Isocitrate dehydrogenase (Pseudoalteromonas piratica), 335 residues
Amino acid sequence: MSKQTITVIKGDGIGPSIIDSALEILNAVGCDFEYEFVDAGLTALENTGELLPQATLEAIERNKITLKGPLTTPVGEGFTSINVTLRKKFNLYANVRPVKSFEGTKARYDDIDIITIRENTQGMYSGLGQVVSEDGSEAEAMSKITREGAEKIVTFAYELAKREGRKKVTAVHKANILKSTSGLFLKVAREVGERYPEIESAEMIVDATCMKLVMNPEEFDVMVTTNLFGDILSDLCAGLVGGLGMAPGANIGQDAAIFEAVHGSAPDIAGKNLANPTSVILASIQMLEYLGEADKAERIRNAIAHVIKTGDRTTRDLGGSHGTTDFTQAVIEAL
Ligand code: ATP
Ligand code: MG
């Protein structure tokens, strides 16, 4: 069997240091991948004059599997988000963002196990009809939901629930106010839910969901929602398990998948060896599971759990006083 090649984009800010950490751990657990390193984001802009060079797009397409650090999109006119562009370009319609408690974090709960499934290509992030009036006094953006898009993402959520032995899928919406877009999403979610009688179907308005997640997170199992709500809710969920350093995400499409951290490039701590690499290590665990290497994934998860529980070599955000490299070394030793 030929070796699996993985496209690696180290990214901006804390990206290179947390991606290096993940790659060291993949090697330590005995993964025999080829890596093809390509650039995107600010790093690519500086090197090639382009945010998303053609060679990068070709590598993502050719190798099908990408591990990616956070990318910075320059603020201002003419730059659309690189992450959004990648998701749309490769039709990575499903964004899978699991959060799970690890013993030893400073989180308020110790039994969180929630997967947010975020629709990744439509809704408020469609980039459609974004206009500002000439004098800058009015701005307008359009949101688009299609029956096909909603059906695909909700079906994805139920299939994942079935495969992973999950009990409940909650569709999160704002159909009472956003009657057309969120209304269509909810209608389709109800229809799809009826095809899965063995899984409990629930629906909840997004604002109430925020409150419930904070007060009674044990009521949630799998959540499925539209783009903007999924973005916000998944950061909230990251907060339930100790912060953004603990939150991975997989962007899945028919022909390609990109695994990444939920957070951004964290410029405030970049280059200081302070970042918690767990988010992107957990993303590489999602990648291993996707590739059918569940046993290696499990071993890495156990090693992280051990290091966080022991607590003497963790990063600042986890209450420790150690750097990215120390934490990585501790995980490798625990393996
Ligand atoms: P973006 O617009 O790209 O999402 P942002 O301004 O929201 O960027 P993030 O990079 O998402 O910034 O980070 C938000 C906060 O969380 C920052 O204070 C950052 O330092 C912290 N943070 C993010 N990732 C990590 C991490 N892996 N380890 C420790 N702290 C992190
Ligand atoms: Mg952010």
